[in-house]
Amino acid sequence: MKKTYSIIILIVVTVTNITSQISINGGFEKRNPNGNPKNWDTEYKTGRAYGYNVTVDSVIKQEGKYSLQIHENTSAADKSFGACALTILNKYNGTSVTLKGYLKTEDVKDGWGGLWMRINNENNMLEFNNMQQENIIRTNDWKEYSITLPLAKDAVKIVIGGLLVGEGKVWIDNLRVYIDDKPIEYAPLKK
After folding, report:
1. Global pTM?
2. How deeply is 160 buried, as exposed, middle or buried, from its count of CB atoms within 10 A (0-12, 13-18, 19+)?
Protein backbone atom coordinates (compact mmCIF):
# COMPACT_ATOMS: atom_id res chain seq x y z
CA MET A 1 0.00 0.00 0.00
CA LYS A 2 2.84 2.39 0.91
CA LYS A 3 4.50 1.62 -2.42
CA THR A 4 1.30 2.52 -4.32
CA TYR A 5 1.01 5.88 -2.52
CA SER A 6 4.69 6.61 -3.18
CA ILE A 7 4.22 5.93 -6.90
CA ILE A 8 1.11 8.12 -7.04
CA ILE A 9 2.92 10.97 -5.24
CA LEU A 10 5.89 10.62 -7.61
CA ILE A 11 3.59 10.78 -10.65
CA VAL A 12 1.74 13.85 -9.30
CA VAL A 13 5.02 15.66 -8.52
CA THR A 14 6.47 14.79 -11.94
CA VAL A 15 3.37 15.93 -13.83
CA THR A 16 3.20 19.12 -11.73
CA ASN A 17 6.88 19.89 -12.44
CA ILE A 18 6.46 19.28 -16.18
CA THR A 19 3.31 21.35 -16.56
CA SER A 20 4.53 24.14 -14.26
CA GLN A 21 7.48 24.90 -16.55
CA ILE A 22 5.35 27.41 -18.45
CA SER A 23 1.72 28.37 -18.78
CA ILE A 24 1.19 29.70 -22.28
CA ASN A 25 -2.55 30.19 -21.69
CA GLY A 26 -2.84 30.28 -25.47
CA GLY A 27 -6.58 29.77 -25.37
CA PHE A 28 -6.91 32.77 -23.01
CA GLU A 29 -9.06 30.64 -20.70
CA LYS A 30 -7.22 31.58 -17.48
CA ARG A 31 -8.07 35.14 -16.49
CA ASN A 32 -6.78 37.72 -14.01
CA PRO A 33 -9.27 39.34 -11.61
CA ASN A 34 -9.48 42.30 -14.05
CA GLY A 35 -10.67 39.91 -16.79
CA ASN A 36 -7.51 40.04 -18.90
CA PRO A 37 -5.83 36.77 -19.89
CA LYS A 38 -3.37 35.54 -17.27
CA ASN A 39 0.32 36.04 -18.19
CA TRP A 40 -0.53 38.12 -21.30
CA ASP A 41 0.34 41.77 -21.88
CA THR A 42 -2.79 43.11 -23.58
CA GLU A 43 -1.59 46.70 -23.40
CA TYR A 44 1.60 46.04 -25.31
CA LYS A 45 2.99 49.53 -25.86
CA THR A 46 6.51 48.72 -26.97
CA GLY A 47 7.64 50.84 -29.88
CA ARG A 48 4.52 52.29 -31.49
CA ALA A 49 1.78 49.86 -30.45
CA TYR A 50 -0.88 52.49 -29.80
CA GLY A 51 -4.29 53.22 -31.24
CA TYR A 52 -5.68 49.71 -30.80
CA ASN A 53 -7.74 47.83 -28.25
CA VAL A 54 -7.03 44.25 -27.19
CA THR A 55 -10.00 42.53 -25.58
CA VAL A 56 -11.15 39.07 -24.56
CA ASP A 57 -13.98 37.83 -26.79
CA SER A 58 -16.43 35.21 -25.50
CA VAL A 59 -18.58 35.16 -28.66
CA ILE A 60 -16.10 34.58 -31.50
CA LYS A 61 -13.57 31.87 -30.63
CA GLN A 62 -11.82 28.95 -32.29
CA GLU A 63 -12.06 26.68 -29.25
CA GLY A 64 -12.82 26.94 -25.56
CA LYS A 65 -14.68 29.89 -24.06
CA TYR A 66 -12.51 32.82 -25.21
CA SER A 67 -10.30 34.30 -27.88
CA LEU A 68 -8.36 37.55 -27.97
CA GLN A 69 -9.45 40.30 -30.34
CA ILE A 70 -7.32 43.20 -31.58
CA HIS A 71 -9.17 46.05 -33.25
CA GLU A 72 -8.38 49.61 -34.14
CA ASN A 73 -9.46 52.49 -31.95
CA THR A 74 -11.04 54.66 -34.65
CA SER A 75 -10.62 57.84 -32.58
CA ALA A 76 -6.88 57.35 -31.93
CA ALA A 77 -4.44 59.54 -33.84
CA ASP A 78 -1.60 56.99 -34.00
CA LYS A 79 -2.62 53.65 -35.48
CA SER A 80 0.76 52.10 -36.20
CA PHE A 81 -0.10 48.62 -34.92
CA GLY A 82 -1.78 46.81 -32.05
CA ALA A 83 -0.34 43.76 -30.35
CA CYS A 84 -0.55 41.41 -27.42
CA ALA A 85 2.51 39.67 -25.99
CA LEU A 86 3.65 36.85 -23.75
CA THR A 87 7.29 36.69 -22.63
CA ILE A 88 8.80 33.26 -22.00
CA LEU A 89 12.18 32.99 -20.29
CA ASN A 90 14.33 30.66 -22.34
CA LYS A 91 15.31 27.81 -20.08
CA TYR A 92 14.99 25.24 -22.85
CA ASN A 93 17.56 23.08 -24.55
CA GLY A 94 16.76 23.20 -28.25
CA THR A 95 17.67 24.65 -31.62
CA SER A 96 14.30 25.93 -32.88
CA VAL A 97 11.09 27.37 -31.49
CA THR A 98 7.71 27.23 -33.26
CA LEU A 99 4.60 29.24 -32.51
CA LYS A 100 1.33 27.81 -33.82
CA GLY A 101 -2.07 29.40 -33.50
CA TYR A 102 -5.35 30.27 -35.15
CA LEU A 103 -6.31 33.62 -36.64
CA LYS A 104 -9.60 35.01 -37.90
CA THR A 105 -9.81 38.42 -39.58
CA GLU A 106 -12.50 40.92 -40.48
CA ASP A 107 -12.08 43.79 -42.95
CA VAL A 108 -8.30 44.02 -42.51
CA LYS A 109 -6.86 46.60 -44.91
CA ASP A 110 -3.92 48.99 -45.20
CA GLY A 111 -1.83 46.44 -43.31
CA TRP A 112 -2.15 42.83 -42.14
CA GLY A 113 -2.95 40.58 -39.22
CA GLY A 114 -0.66 37.89 -37.89
CA LEU A 115 1.17 36.06 -35.18
CA TRP A 116 4.57 37.36 -34.18
CA MET A 117 7.62 36.02 -32.40
CA ARG A 118 10.90 37.55 -31.29
CA ILE A 119 14.01 35.91 -29.79
CA ASN A 120 16.27 38.11 -27.63
CA ASN A 121 19.58 37.61 -25.88
CA GLU A 122 20.63 39.87 -22.99
CA ASN A 123 21.14 42.94 -25.19
CA ASN A 124 19.74 42.42 -28.68
CA MET A 125 16.98 40.98 -30.80
CA LEU A 126 18.34 37.84 -32.47
CA GLU A 127 15.35 36.75 -34.57
CA PHE A 128 11.98 38.21 -35.52
CA ASN A 129 8.95 37.33 -37.65
CA ASN A 130 5.61 39.18 -37.73
CA MET A 131 4.01 37.34 -40.68
CA GLN A 132 4.01 40.44 -42.88
CA GLN A 133 4.98 38.25 -45.84
CA GLU A 134 1.83 36.13 -45.33
CA ASN A 135 -0.29 39.16 -46.26
CA ILE A 136 -3.30 38.15 -44.13
CA ILE A 137 -5.86 40.76 -45.17
CA ARG A 138 -9.60 41.19 -45.74
CA THR A 139 -12.04 38.80 -44.03
CA ASN A 140 -10.96 35.22 -43.33
CA ASP A 141 -12.38 32.42 -41.20
CA TRP A 142 -10.27 30.62 -38.60
CA LYS A 143 -7.05 29.20 -40.01
CA GLU A 144 -3.95 27.79 -38.33
CA TYR A 145 -0.63 29.55 -38.92
CA SER A 146 2.88 28.95 -37.64
CA ILE A 147 6.23 30.68 -37.27
CA THR A 148 9.53 28.86 -36.68
CA LEU A 149 12.73 30.63 -35.65
CA PRO A 150 16.19 29.37 -34.68
CA LEU A 151 16.79 29.28 -30.94
CA ALA A 152 20.34 30.43 -30.25
CA LYS A 153 22.20 29.09 -27.20
CA ASP A 154 22.46 32.64 -25.80
CA ALA A 155 18.73 33.37 -26.22
CA VAL A 156 17.24 34.70 -23.00
CA LYS A 157 13.65 35.51 -23.99
CA ILE A 158 11.07 34.18 -26.42
CA VAL A 159 8.31 36.74 -26.95
CA ILE A 160 5.14 35.64 -28.75
CA GLY A 161 1.85 37.26 -29.63
CA GLY A 162 -0.61 38.44 -32.21
CA LEU A 163 -0.86 41.74 -34.03
CA LEU A 164 -2.87 43.96 -36.31
CA VAL A 165 -1.38 46.59 -38.61
CA GLY A 166 -3.91 48.85 -40.31
CA GLU A 167 -7.68 48.74 -40.10
CA GLY A 168 -10.05 45.94 -39.16
CA LYS A 169 -10.15 43.19 -36.54
CA VAL A 170 -8.06 40.11 -35.78
CA TRP A 171 -8.98 37.28 -33.41
CA ILE A 172 -6.28 35.02 -31.97
CA ASP A 173 -6.85 31.65 -30.30
CA ASN A 174 -5.32 28.29 -29.42
CA LEU A 175 -1.65 29.40 -29.40
CA ARG A 176 0.95 26.71 -28.76
CA VAL A 177 4.75 26.81 -28.52
CA TYR A 178 7.11 23.98 -29.48
CA ILE A 179 10.82 23.54 -28.89
CA ASP A 180 12.33 21.25 -31.54
CA ASP A 181 8.78 20.05 -32.37
CA LYS A 182 7.99 19.11 -28.74
CA PRO A 183 5.29 21.00 -26.83
CA ILE A 184 7.10 23.50 -24.60
CA GLU A 185 5.59 21.84 -21.50
CA TYR A 186 7.63 18.73 -22.32
CA ALA A 187 10.75 20.31 -23.86
CA PRO A 188 14.06 19.46 -22.23
CA LEU A 189 15.43 22.11 -19.92
CA LYS A 190 18.97 23.53 -20.04
CA LYS A 191 21.30 21.93 -17.53
Report:
1. 0.85
2. buried
